[in-house]
Amino acid sequence: MLCHQLKRFKCADLLVTNHEAQHFPSCLSFDRVLCDVPCSGDGTLRKAPDMWVKWNHREAHGLHKLQMAIGRRGFDLLKPGGTMVYATCSFNPLENEAVVNSLLNAYGSIIELVDVSDKLKGFKRRDGLNTWSVKDTSPEQTWYTSFEQVPEHRRRSVVESMFPPAESAPTSSLLKRCVRVVPHDQDTGGFFVAVLRKAGEAPVVERVPTEGGARAPRQRPDTRNRRGYSNLLSSDPLARLNEVNPTLAKEIREFYGFEPEWVMNGVYSKSSEKQSKRLSFIPEKGQKVLDEFVYAPDLKQQLRVLSAGVRGFEKCPRDGAECSYRIAFDTLHILLPVLTRRVIYVKKETLCGLLQVSQSLLFDKVDDEETRKEIERISVGAVVFRKESSDDCLIMWRGKVSLTPLMPKDEVEFLCFKYDLPNPAKTQRGGSDGVPEDAKQRIDAKDEEDAGRAEEAPE
């Protein structure tokens, strides 16, 4: 689900990994970390009414140590000056303020609980708690106000970190900087948020034991020593196209006129077959992470990557094409500056006319004569129609006698909205006018970019 949702952003500098959060490898450090930890979820009582029946205070006891371990791991991975957000959808202070208090105590002077009240103008929030009681999970269900009240034989289940700080402790007043959101204040769910900033290098912190004991070392797949392969969680490995199928790589490079080496170095095949249906594009930064950390000698440094980069090229088998792979729209904004072939520059009126094509368009139906000649001159295959002095583009398949659109519906909708055109697909996505909800926000930025290019363009 995460990979599917992130595809909408068309962000090539993106790697999705699959690890237990408390054991995330030490190979990288980050400017930002979000600890959206597992929680009892009682803040979702409104949308999940069955929670009223299922809820049990024992859940918080079972999750407390895991939440602390994830919080500490996240903070360890922060760069100095970086920010971590610890968040739950729970009301229970054992899952919220108790965890934050343990982090403040563990990291001392290098951790800061940030006051974000000035950044939430108009947002109804409540301060964090600095006092609470802890209920035992034993049949007696005793309430304790301090750890000293807990009998010796119960201290493995009811641990000291579950309790609030002493009133005189420095962290007591700081906990009020946490943010609590309750449903009836502004018709929302229930949430807890704490923003933590790292001021320096972290000391070595004793790890919190979690359930399950020691982990068995992960076995490396058979492709360990095969050059160019990475450890994606897939039945097929990920490999550089240059290495597994140099013939196809050369075909794509020459067909689209990609001169810089970095273009084809970033094209990966997610299949052991030489003719993969989809080729991914991973920029240089992502490649370095894959090369260095997917097969690091130290198991603690190894990354298990679930998804990397964006769709680069997709197989589109048609008769008579020199190259059967079409460039994917997801990566077009990256490759457009180095695309020296298969590009036809068109006027606004011509682009608008092509946007209205829902099925196919015969060459002789193209209104602009100059564009029609360019279409007839170019060979069979994918072609990019780019508006002059703009990055607005349309990808189509140039067949033997006609053009066929190869665009995502939401992008067609956006361009139609921008140029005040009816949507040829007549799909209702987002608002009542059939346009994505974010289209109006994207329009202003696009128009400013295009106006700037038009002013810079030579007359």
TrEMBL record:
Q: What is this protein's name?
A: SAM-dependent MTase RsmB/NOP-type domain-containing protein
The record's section on Gene3D superfamilies has: Vaccinia Virus protein VP39
User: What is the species listed in this Swiss-Prot or TrEMBL entry?
Assistant: Rhodosorus marinus
Q: Which residues form a coiled coil?
A: none
| Keyword check for Transferase | yes
Keywords from the UniProt entry = Methyltransferase, RNA-binding, S-adenosyl-L-methionine, Transferase
**Gene Ontology annotations of biological process type:** RNA methylation
Q: Which SUPFAM superfamilies does the annotation name?
A: S-adenosyl-L-methionine-dependent methyltransferases
**Ranges of compositional bias, category Basic and acidic residues:** 437-459
| Domain of life of the native organism | Eukaryota
